Amino acid sequence: MPTKHHEHVVPNLRTGVRFYFSSVSTSGYVPFHWHSSLELVYVLKGALRFNLDGQIYHLKENQFILVPSGGIHDVTNQPNQAFVLQIPLQVVSPYFDHPERVQFLNGQTELPEYQTIIRLVTMLGQASENHLESSSFDFGIALLQILRLMFTTFKAPLTNRHVNEQMKEILIYVNDHPHEAISVNQLATHFGYNPSYLSRMFKEQMGLSLTNYVYETKLSRLYDDLIHRDESITALMEQNGLKNPRTARKIFVDMYGCLPKEIQKRHRQQRGRSN
Question: pTM for the full model?
């Protein structure tokens, strides 16, 4: 399975987890993906919008989300700063059987334990920056306390809800054909579905229409091109398989709050000032 869709977490600490500070200065969109590891994202500044297994979560400052193993999610961001903790399953297995089956409760901001996790993640940040003999111990202690809360207070009741594996194949197909115009009819033919049935199934499982997903994936690449390339917007749209400029512009404004030409103009001016 392509690694750009199913991410493999490379640990960066002795505890076997990956922990880092993320600072993003522009708006953006990360298309649907998943990883076998568990993930905790804690917003320090700014805002993030997660679509996790068809549920929408708006994260503001001092809020976090827990992403289970295999949870399909996309991320729409404004400029933000966040701590990201990624936990491979083998780190949890000595303490909890089959951590890959666990779903988590999100949005429980009223619980005292919610603030406890925020305090513990802040401790991870402090311990990872310190270079004291005790820092690794401090990090490990805080990590185990976070895991304990994740698998007790924030463990969701077991459900049969899961994303059809064929949906993952569709996500991969869309991401692997960035320069082609892709329609619902084309996807339905390729995967052997009736177009209406495929559209309905995708919306039910992923929380947005298949057409919108195709556009959002391609527009995220267009946004990156607008920042780094000086070609005309028409040419960049063509190269990203966006054959309907009117629809593309409308969805672009919904995603980024402005027209493509405004993004291009802004970054041209920034490049001009830096030269």
Answer: 0.79
